[in-house]
Amino acid sequence: MKKCKYLAFVFSLLLVVMAGCDYNKFQIELSTPKSFTLDQPSPIQIKIQDSDSNPVVGAKVTVDLKMKGMSHGNLSIEMQETKDGVYVGNADIEMEGDYTASIIINDKGEKWMGEKRFSIVTKTSP
């Protein structure tokens, strides 16, 4: 019986270590505008580096935006690489508020998912 508890503990510890190693696989920097104009695309930029601070080149990157507290679906954005490790896409944001960007990275057959949060307001006329 003690052997089973010991094996369960070791297995649990191994899972925690493996999850921790994958967590830091990428360094993500999300850049969004502070404000938006209705009916005009808002640029979203993601800078992706590996754990050694090298740019992640040639990955497939998707961002799903979801507004906090709203349940009218996600806004999915296919990102395009504009230079080494920098991916850009346009979002058709319709309301100001707090958003969660769910970032999905497919790099060399490995899939990684993470989240970043940001706020945006409607641009006012000068």
Question: Summed up, what is this model?
Answer:
By secondary structure, this protein is α+β, with helices and mostly antiparallel strands. The protein has one helix at residues 2-23, and strands at residues 26-31, 35-36, 42-50, 60-67, 75-78, 80-83, 86-91, 97-107, 110-122.
Regions with pLDDT < 50 over 5+ consecutive residues? 13-22
- Spatial order of strands in the largest sheet: 2-9-8-4-5
What is the third-level CATH name, the topology?
Immunoglobulin-like
The tally of domains stands at 1
Tally of alpha and pi helices: 1
First-last Cα distance: 74 Å
CATH superfamily: SOR catalytic domain
Given this structure, which CATH class is correct?
A: Mainly Beta
Q: What class, by secondary structure content?
A: alpha+beta
Tell me the major beta sheet.
5 strands, mixed
Q: What pattern of helices and strands is seen along the backbone?
A: HEEEEEEEEE
Rg: 19 Å
Q: Which of globular, elongated, flat, extended, rod-shaped describes the shape?
A: globular
- Assigned CATH architecture: Sandwich
Task: Report the strand count.
Answer: 9
Strand content: over 45%
Average pLDDT, rounded to a whole number, is 84
Helix content: 10-25%
